[in-house]
Amino acid sequence: MKERLEELKQEALEKVSKSENVQSLKDVRVEYLGKKGPITEVLRGMGKLSKEERPVIGQLANEVRESIAAAIDTKQTRLEDQELEKQLEAESIDVTLPGRPVRVGGPHLLTSIVEEIEDLFIGMGFEIKEGPEVETDYYNFEALNLPKGHPARDMQDSFYITEELLLRTHTSPVQARTMGQKNGNEPVKMICPGKVYRRDTDDATHSHQFTQLEGLLVDKHVRMSDLKGVLNAFAKQMFGAERDIRLRPSFFPFTEPSVEMDISCKVCEGKGCSVCKGTGWIEILGAGMVHPNVLEMAGYDPKEYSGFAFGMGPERIAMLKYGVDDIRNFYTNDIRFLEQYHKA
């Protein structure tokens, strides 16, 4: 048996030395050290040996197994190192090559406009407030002086989920919620930007989903002149110091009196052109003094408190400021359009 074990050892070591890859080494390991290998067969025949020979052959068999296993491990390590070296050579990076430029994205145009407006009003002491886009009928309509049956509540204008839940049609509910949290005895000075939803047919100037930004100031002794001063500061900072504004009488259920604000056309400088339809003025937003009913429903005493509110569409602001002629450009995500307004 000694001769057989020595013979198996030499055979195995020779095969290990000739192996050229890890898989062939695994085959050698299974062939000689596996449960069905020749060394195991030799050990099974030890029962025929004398008591004196058994420990000698057993020790020799273990030495042969350990020798073969060590040779396989050493050769496997060497082969794996060689394969890794070849892989590193194949995947090597030439650090002398010029770098590949990475295209950096930027804020969406609407995001930039909203942030610009936010910064402007924060500078005037306004807070930013947010609210849910799925709103209750009470906050979306009733708390804003829009009772049941009012034309503005028509199903053609609103996306109702249930009779009492809908996708908000404006950000005014955030104003109603904020006033309600003040318990009718604290001033409010806030703006609330966000998405709103209406059942509109999408075209160049309308969208079923768009952005709105509204402002509210409630305090004692608030006057229409305060509203005009805030809107004038907004227009000049947003569109240029040379812009003039005018307020025209209008109607909104939640303000009384209500006004529309126009700015002088920057294309023709007020002389009249196709952009302003020959009037020299462009409508920009709606505003007014908060209706006493709205104040009362929020817990304020309209004899003691007054306020003003305004609302604008950032899409319209962007279209006027940058000459965009189709509102759908903001939502189609065409990189050719968006990258024109990316500020590096």
TrEMBL record:
GO terms for cellular component: cytoplasm. Binds 2 magnesium ions per tetramer. It is an enzyme of class 6 (ligase). The keyword Transmembrane does not apply. InterPro entries: aa-tRNA-synth_II, aa-tRNA-synth_II/BPL/LPL, Phe-tRNA-synth_IIc_asu, Phe-tRNA_ligase_II_N, Phe_tRNA_ligase_alpha1_bac, Phenylalanyl-tRNA_Synthase, tRNA-bd_arm. GO terms for molecular function: ATP binding; catalytic activity, acting on a protein; magnesium ion binding; phenylalanine-tRNA ligase activity; transferase activity; tRNA binding. Keywords: Aminoacyl-tRNA synthetase, ATP-binding, Cytoplasm, Ligase, Magnesium, Metal-binding, Nucleotide-binding, Protein biosynthesis. Tetramer of two alpha and two beta subunits. This is Phenylalanine--tRNA ligase alpha subunit. It comes from Halobacillus halophilus (strain ATCC 35676 / DSM 2266 / JCM 20832 / KCTC 3685 / LMG 17431 / NBRC 102448 / NCIMB 2269).
